[in-house]
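Researcher: Please predict.
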Amino acid sequence: MKIVFMGTPDFAVPTLTALHNSSHDVALVVTQPDRPKGRGRALIAPPVKEAAMKFGYPVIQPESVKTDEFEAQLRNIKADAFVVIAFGHILSEKLLSIPKYGAINVHGSVLPKYRGSAPIQWGIINGEAESGVTTMLLDKGMDTGDILLIEKTPILPDDTAASLYDRLSVIGADLLIKTLDNFENIRPIPQDHGSATYAPMLKKEDGHIRWSMPAAKIETLIRGVTPWPGAFTFYTEKRLKIFKVSVIEKETDCPPGTVIESFSDELRVATGKGLISIAEIQGESGKRLNIRDFLRGCPIAAGTVLR
């Protein structure tokens, strides 16, 4: 097929790479504009742009996908299909009607569960046993189009959003090629909209640990918001970032958030149900440390309440 590829972050790069190594023809790559980042606010190219330039593909970076100029650029390609993965723009019905076979989306969940922009993170946060990737035909809705193929993978006990993100990006690349290679033999299946769930974009405050939750829910929250927005709590007025914890099935009469008396190299915290033992932590101006090294420089007394 002759393809127009639309994507922006590193999640989309394995799929573009797989297309480059396939029999399909990438005629154009569309991605977000370069954005200022870091303390110097230097313009940084999206990962998809960097990969496309390495492969020698023409790249356009529209600020808007609603202009006549952008529509004309797409029509001039005469593409068989658009491939859309984490692009960051919603395409109109007029644009979706341009390619011969429609627009194929690669989505990081087992649809219709976890429609939206943060399916990988919310799947972990909610304690799901599995995740996966769906290829589907885009329509005017948010991840509501007909399903083409699905590939599932278990969510491992130590998976963070980062590790699952990396694994699904590779699974998605393979699934997209399988979808294109067998497109004529795949029967699109309408989604069961009544079973749909949603995964809204995460906000910074979503990482704030509410110690009143059960320990098991706090553990999945921490894994689901790592690396972004990151899990955090407050010790006095200082923000502590929490990276890794374990659940202790033990009850206490102490209020949630209270540091429990334990070994000198351990930090146990009361929750709404059970205890959390913090394994990796970072102070406000320090670096990520195991709990033993952190407590050596910043002891936290039993009875202290984290909030």
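Model: The first helix runs from residue 13 to 20.
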